[in-house]
Write a structure and sequence with these properties.
Blueprint: H1 16-27, E1 46-47, H2 61-75, E2 78-82, H3 88-94, E3 98-99, H4 104-109, E4 115-121, E5 137-141, H5 146-153, H6 156-159, H7 163-166, E6 167-173, H8 194-207, E7 213-218, H9 222-233, H10 240-259, H11 263-282, H12 286-322, H13 331-343, H14 360-377, H15 383-396, H16 401-417
Helix pairs in contact: 1-2, 8-9, 10-11, 10-12, 11-12, 12-13, 12-14, 13-14, 14-15, 14-16, 15-16
């Protein structure tokens, strides 16, 4: 009896909607972005996790044409390119933006992008090094992660002073259309209609503000391109009173957590608020806010930020002394908060030739917490500095019970060490 001959699977006999479901399962199966950011991963790209099998693209001309079409239109791949001088790795690593490939040659060889974002800076502030690379790069992300990419770039001024003022950004819609179309691929021209254009550009116009050097080009209507450029160029904040009120309310929310003994929630609320203040302070909106608000606005913002940093240091000091459940406390975070508080009261920190002067009680808190930090850190070579800080605090508020107790503890520490 002759052996039965295996018949090819009749895949093309299935309805197109069934075939498209198969293509999506094989070519569009990416895991969601991560929800946690670890300090150890802050300067590395987050590799997009997936279960993609591209073998279907090598099956036949028709199947390749159909599958490639579904893959590109569903995943909506985006090319991110930097000419250099920008800390792209640290900016995107801060929010764990998933990257499909960070291989520049590989990313540039692919031709099925729905968007291309080209970044450059007029004044590179950092040199390229192993710790924070700023050299040229090219990488691929998914269209779904453009919002996260934009959110990461709102923190650019925290990574690099003058980032937003010096950034040049070109957004090209439909770069795939500019390439010749092989016979085994469909043209994507019809895909970039008005609805798709608006969808692709929505994350930029809703998330980015204060960037003046923006150009929107490619398969996009002139009116839409102009609208997006205008919206992105607008200052993020214009109402100085609202800016202050929002930050003051955020500080109070942290205080409510602290009073409820939820130290982790309080710390996160205060840290987020302080970072947002730093971002706006370093961004393009600040000059206008300072002009409109004048010295009164500057004084209120300076005091708010100073107290936020003291609060952040306070929680970390509690953590150093007795621990915070479920939250890793690091000595350097307390030290950093105290350093930021000290920096914020220096001349020209908030505006040229302008200085905010804290009250005696506020300055005493800074001195006291600095002394406490040095004692808890436990480095005997800093014992003399700890005593100097606590004595300065007592000169500012003589007879304060907490400060007197801390002086006694430092004296006992010095005696024990001696």
């Amino acid at each position: 009896m002759a052996p039965a001959t295996a018949r090819p699977f009749p895949f093309l006999s299935f309805p197109r909607e069934i075939r498209d479901k198969v293509y999506r399962e094989l070519l569009c199966n990416f895991d969601p972005p991560p929800t946690k950011v670890l300090p150890s991963t802050m300067f590395t790209f987050e590799q997009a996790k997936h279960s993609i099998d591209t073998a279907v693209l090598r099956t036949s001309t028709q199947i390749h044409r159909e599958a490639y079409d579904v893959m590109v239109k569903t995943n909506r791949f985006v090319l991110i390119e930097s000419a250099g001088g920008l800390p792209i790795r640290s900016i995107m690593g801060g929010l764990r933006v998933p990257v499909i490939t960070a291989d520049r040659d590989c990313a540039q060889r692919f031709k099925g992008y729905v968007l291309a974002v080209s970044l450059s800076t007029k004044k590179p502030a950092w040199r390229d090094d192993e710790a924070i690379p700023t050299g040229p790069c090219g990488l691929m992300i998914l269209g779904r992660d453009v919002r996260l990419f934009c959110e990461a770039f709102t923190d650019g001024d925290n990574h690099m002073p003058g980032f937003s003022a010096n950034l040049s950004l070109t957004i090209t819609v439909g770069p795939a259309v500019a390439h010749p179309v092989p016979r085994y691929k469909n043209t994507l021209t019809d895909f970039f209609g008005e609805t798709t254009q608006k969808t692709l550009l929505h994350p930029f116009r809703s998330r980015l503000r204060g960037h003046k050097g923006i150009c929107v080009t490619g398969c996009v209507s002139p009116d839409l391109a102009k609208a997006v450029q205008t919206e992105i160029a607008q200052d993020e904040c214009a109402d100085h009173q609202k800016v202050f009120d929002d930050f003051a309310a955020a500080k109070e929310r942290g205080l409510a957590h602290f009073r409820a003994k939820d130290l982790t929630a309080a710390l996160l609320a205060w840290q987020d608020t302080a970072l947002d203040i730093e971002r706006i302070h370093r961004g393009s909106s600040w000059a206008g806010l300072a002009t409109r608000g004048g010295p009164d606005f500057l004084a209120r913002m300076a005091e708010l930020y100073f107290l936020l940093e003291l609060n952040i240091a306070h929680v970390h000091l509690i953590g150093m002394e007795r621990g915070i459940p479920n939250y890793p406390t690091f000595d350097f975070q307390a030290e950093q908060a105290l350093e930021m508080a000290r920096s914020s009261i220096k001349k020209s920190f908030w505006a040229d030739d302008w200085k905010w002067q804290p009250s005696a009680v506020q300055k005493a808190k800074l001195c006291y917490r600095t002394a406490l930090f040095l004692r808890l850190e436990g480095r005997m070579e800093h014992a003399g500095a700890a005593m100097a800080w606590v004595e300065q605090a007592l000169r500012l508020v003589p007879g304060d019970a907490a400060i007197l107790r801390e002086k006694e503890k430092i004296a006992a520490w010095v005696e024990l060490g001696g």
